[in-house]
Amino acid sequence: MTTPAEQPREGAAPQPSGVPQPSGVDLARVALRAAKEQARARGNAVQQKKQARRGGLRSGARADGRDPLPLGAAINRLITERGWETPAAVGGVMGRWPQMVGPEVALHCEPLKYDEDARVLTVGCDSTAWATQLRLLAPTLVARLNADLGQGTVKMIKVVGPGGPGRRFGPLRAPGSTGPGDTYG
Question: Using CB atoms within 10 A of its CB, is residue 82 exposed (0-12), middle (13-18) or buried (19+)?
C-alpha cells in the first residue's frame, strides 16, 4: 500500500521507481526557473506593446539609418547609394590583376585606370614588346573580365607603352631635334 506522499499527482508523468523525485530545494529551483521564464515572456510582450504604441523604438535601429554599422556594411551601403558598383568591381579586379593575367604578364603590365563612361580599361606596360603582347591578348582579357564582372563592363583595353625620358629644352639642345623620345610608344 502507498502513502499519499508516494502516490503520483494528477497530470504528472509516472516516475520510474529508481529515479528520485525532486523535493524541497530542487522543487523550489524548478518553480523559480518557470516563474522567471513566464515573467520574461510577459515583459517582452509588454515591451513590444509599448514600442508599438509610441511609434517604434526610441533608440537602437532606426529607419533613417543613423545607427553605427560595421565598416564592411557601411562601405557596401555607400557603394550602393552612390552607384559605384561597377568601379568598385573593376577596382577589385585591379587588386587581383596577377590572378587575372598571370604572374609573368603582371610583372610587366599593370592596370592604370578605368573610364566608366567609355568602359575602357587602360593598362600600362614597361616595354613596347609587352605592350604589343598585351594588345594581342586584349580580346581574351576583355572576355575574361566581362565573365568576372558582368557582360559589357569592359568594352576595350587601351594599352599604353612606356613613356620616354622628359624632353629638356635648353641652350645645348638643337631646335626641332626629337631625341630619344622617338623610339618609344
Answer: exposed
